[in-house]
Amino acid sequence: MSVNKAIIVGNLGADPEVRFTPKGTPVATFQVATNEKWTDKGTGEKQERTEWHRIVAWGKLGEICGEYLVKGKQVYIEGSIRTRPWEDRDGNKRYTTEIVAQVMQMLGRQGEQGELPVQEPEPRNGGEDDLIPF
């Protein structure tokens, strides 16, 4: 068994960019910054590091991200980590690692940029209950 799950809470670096696949499926991409703070044990100096995470949200979740998320907004993202290859203009093979969002929750004070409930992924089995009794 293996698990591929990422959970981050951070702030958007820019408004999401929403595009559509040839079949019309919305795809939102955006960057979320997370900060880490600590005190260096050797020097006693406070340290800080910012990590940027590329987020991709598909379908209805992508539409919602594009409509409600804005630069600076704090957000909770839950999804899986994917690395995909692509070619640059010179034909060199490159790789991008991103979090494919399955759950998004806008954080912050009530009334900021319009709040929505947690967006859960749609059931993969078409909404049918499985045979497990719990």
UniProtKB/TrEMBL annotation:
PROSITE patterns hit by this protein: SSB
GO cellular component, one term: nucleoid
Key words, A-Z: DNA-binding
Stored Pfam families: SSB
Molecular function, one GO term: single-stranded DNA binding
Entry annotated with the keyword DNA-binding: yes
Gene3D superfamilies found in the cross-reference section: Nucleic acid-binding proteins (2.40.50.140)
Protein name (database record): Single-stranded DNA-binding protein
Organism the protein comes from: Candidatus Zymogenus saltonus
